[in-house]
Structure formats: structure tokens, C-alpha cells
Write a structure and sequence with these properties.
SH3 type barrels; ribonucleoprotein; elongated; structural constituent of ribosome; Large ribosomal subunit protein uL24; RNA-binding; mainly beta; two-stranded antiparallel sheet; 10 strands; 114 residues
Length: 114
């Protein structure tokens, strides 16, 4: 079965403290069933102080995105800009006189291909 959420998709958080926030998927972790979404689920991370080769100090408190479970996000419909479910359908594409069937992800609410 193909992945319903992929890198680069626009998703909306449907549960949790960041509910209704939208962001782009930066990375997908299929084994852990988690996604990293831009600007969502931000946590403070304390990094140990150190020095680079040039002599500048690094470390301190950083605010970074943390991965969240894939069930807490839904893909945004390109037409309505609202969360929707994802379906798969087979479409025939003709290229150089040869017809070929391709699996395509689509938004269930509008029927548009993702």
C-alpha cells in the first residue's frame, strides 16, 4: 500500500495543542509512523555548549520541530483548503503512444489529484 502522506504535502493538525495549524511535511518516518511538520509541535531543546573551528561558541536553548504521530494530521484539500481524507485510484496515461496505468492519490472531498 502506498503512503498517504508524503514529503512536501500540506497538512493540518487535527488534534493536540497545535490543532488547526497547517504546515508542510519536512520528513516522514514510516517505521515509527511519525511526520515532521514545519512550524508545528515546536519544543525547546538544550544543546551542550561547544566551539567551532573558527572559535565561535555554539549551544544554548533552541526551538525545533519534533515529530508527531501520523494520525494527528490530515492532508489539506487543494480546492477548499480544509482537511480531507486520501484515496487511491488507477488512471490510464498515454505517453509516446503507449498507454499505462498509474496509481494516483486524490482528495476524497473534491476528487482532485494530489
Amino acid at each position: 500500500m502506498g503512503a498517504k502522506i508524503k514529503k512536501g504535502d500540506l497538512v493540518q493538525v487535527i488534534t493536540g495543542s497545535d490543532r488547526t495549524k497547517q504546515g508542510k511535511v519536512l520528513k516522514v518516518f514510516p517505521a515509527a509512523q511519525r511526520v515532521l511538520v514545519e512550524g508545528v509541535n515546536r519544543v525547546t531543546k538544550h544543546t551542550k555548549a561547544g566551539q567551532t573551528e573558527r572559535g565561535t561558541t555554539t549551544g544554548g536553548i533552541e526551538v525545533v520541530e519534533a515529530p508527531m504521530h501520523i494520525s494527528n494530521v490530515a492532508i489539506v484539500d487543494p480546492d477548499t483548503k480544509k482537511p480531507t481524507r486520501v484515496g487511491f485510484r488507477e488512471e490510464t496515461v498515454e505517453k509516446n503512444g503507449v498507454s499505462k496505468t498509474v496509481r494516483v492519490r486524490y482528495a476524497k472531498s473534491s476528487g482532485k489529484a494530489l
